[in-house]
Design a protein that fits this description.
By secondary structure, the protein is an alpha/beta fold. The protein has 2 domains: 76 residues, no CATH class; 78 residues. The protein has 6 helices and 9 strands. The structure holds zinc ion.
Length: 196
């Protein structure tokens, strides 16, 4: 399995501040996609030319740091652009502003397309809160058009809500009565290991 920053986020992305990584950057196309529909802490983008970057640097102890005050000062590396870069975080509130960052709707489109074709879906720690209109809508819409879905796995500690309510919601969204449920990642990986 191959993943590279260049195309693995679903849109073209460049790495800032890491000469060493640049030299070893994979040339192959990613065979898996990591679609971050609410942005990411390690993303910066240019509101002027639209380029997306990952930003990461090492602190004096050599630890990798993605959040610091300096991120607001970083400038676009596109030739003749030099615009100051912005963070790409869409906070989980009722009124998510998805259109404010041009490439976010494209990521949602890719996610919906992948869900429409999926044979197996694994949901880890996500309970489809009613305030998450857009996510609910995307899953329901995709499931109506998915003829290939064979298996849905739910991994959820179900803390703070009733397990039965959670599973009922998943059954409704995925239009499937038989769901595989695990209360933790370790229980799920135990089962995976016993199968292999
Ligand atoms: Zn730019």
């Amino acid at each position: 399995m191959v993943w590279s920053i260049r195309d693995g986020y679903g849109i073209f992305c460049q790495q800032l501040n890491s000469v060493q990584e640049k030299n070893t950057l994979r040339k192959e196309n990613s065979s898996v996609k990591l679609l971050k529909l609410h942005g990411s802490l390690n993303w910066l983008y240019c509101p002027s030319c639209g380029q997306l970057y990952t930003y990461e640097h090492s602190d004096p102890q050599g630890n990798s740091v993605i959040i610091n005050g300096m991120a607001n000062m970083v400038k676009c590396a596109t030739e003749h652009c030099c615009h100051r870069l912005s963070r790409v975080i869409i906070p989980p509130t009722l009124m998510k502003n998805y259109q404010s960052i041009p490439f976010i709707p494209e990521l949602w489109r890719q996610a919906r397309e992948a869900l429409t074709r999926a044979r197996e879906i694994i949901v880890i720690g996500y309970s489809f809160p009613t305030t998450d209109f857009r996510s609910n809508w995307m899953f329901r819409k995709a499931m109506v058009h998915n003829d290939a879905l064979e298996k849905v796995v739910i991994i959820d500690a179900a803390e703070g809500y009733q397990l039965e309510t959670l599973l009922a919601k998943h059954r409704s969204i995925f239009r499937m009565q038989e769901l595989k449920f695990y209360p933790s990642i370790s229980k799920y990986t135990e089962e995976l290991n016993s199968l292999s």
